[in-house]
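Homework help board

Subject: predicted structure for assignment chain

Our instructor gave us this sequence and asked us to write out the predicted structure in token form, then describe one feature. I got the tokens but I'm not sure how to describe them. Can anyone check?
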Amino acid sequence: MSRLSRRDFLASLAALGVSSALPAQSVSPGSRRGRPNVLFIAVDDLRPQLGCYGATRMLTPHIDSLAADGVVFERAFCSVPVCGASRASLMAGLRPTRGRFTNYYSMVDQDAPGVATLPDLFRRNGYNTVSLGKIYHSQQDDPDGWVSEPWRASPEHRYLLEENRAISEGNWPETGQGRRGPAWEAAAVDDDAYPDGIMTSRAIGELEKFSRSGEPFFLATGFVRPHLPFNSPKRYWDLYDRLQLNLARNPFRPEGAPDAALHNFGELRQYHGIPQTGPLPDGMALELIHGYYASVSYVDAQIGRLMGSLRWLGLERNTVVVLWGDHGWQLGEHGLWCKHCNFQTSLRAPLIVRAPWIPGGKKTSALTEFVDIYPSLCELCGLEAPIHLEGSSFVPLLIDPKLAWKQAVFSRYNDGDSVRTDRYLYTQWTNSAGEVYARMLYDHHTDPQENVNIAELPANRDVVARMTDLLDRGWRSQVPGR
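My token output:
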């Protein structure tokens, strides 16, 4: 198989990317034939480390092209930094609590039974709702939300090299756990050999059906990369020179950070060859960073295929596109890997929205939350939003990205409740009795990497009091327009 050069990869924008040739004037959805469709793109463990977010080394031309036609939300935050809970919260339009949407296995059907989910609302309004790939963590969650049974690629496509399959299928003696192979793989195969390529081809087939039937659709496509293991075709690894990649600039515990803020990144340590304790060797850390970059570029190419098909099938001019990552990811910052913490590197994630009748090429620094996606899609598609929703439609920001918006957004993980304002990120951990046992506060004007916890400094008592008050008043105090 021929090697994909950086030049070829970037040149593929013209062939597969989203067309930017939209009409100059704004066109309302009501003036076009039929209701707007929705292409709902979920990307697992995706950091906002993309070209459209200012990253210079990450090659993401197709996502960048989508951003050029839409609006980039530069400060979008997940509700909870773990896959299952984050997705369930977004799809239900409800925020996490101490007893709801708490972990990897969280399900809407268990934590919010009977609630009208995002796909279920669209299905009830006559949309053909289709789920491909990883949308919910559990493929069995919210079965009533979809017109057809949710589909995922077979697990047999996870590892393609025989030696890695052998490791994955056995138990490793140092832990006694099975079903975990190496943390990365670079097989010289075509894109369709791995699950995300297989899913993309199936999604293109669905788009072809929709173009023939003319029925309104809500097509949810869930990419599993760059979630571990970082398995992608070798040509995407070849896009990057490992000698040009950098380790995290702050691979140390933040000064004054409480124990509650840190973890042993057990998700990564389940993989073959990863040390069970302590920091990772630099060479291994660089290999993982390389694998993450390759996985992101692999997914970017699949998104290019999707957007190219949307264009050539004549669907792009009536299809809303939403791309989001379910949470951030640590690549060695603070000595951590994976998510599962209250640092901004885990809480902040990409969000890009394209509505074809709204001029794109914009960025907004407004504070937004993933629970805002549900009501926003309702407004864009002219559907009545359910009264249970706990987010706010950000459609006004698509039109005016500089509009005054929320002063604070909220996230939580385990016992930790976080609030982010324009300047500060504050987290406090409370026990079941409501007693605070740890705090951290970071000033993003002076410490954007969150390297020094200033919560316990006497000079910051007033700031801590204000941030605590924001947590106590909660999200209802931040509804725009109130």
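Reply (TA_rk): Your tokens look well-formed. For the description, you could write something like this. Residues 282-312 form the longest helix (31 residues). That's the kind of observation they're looking for.
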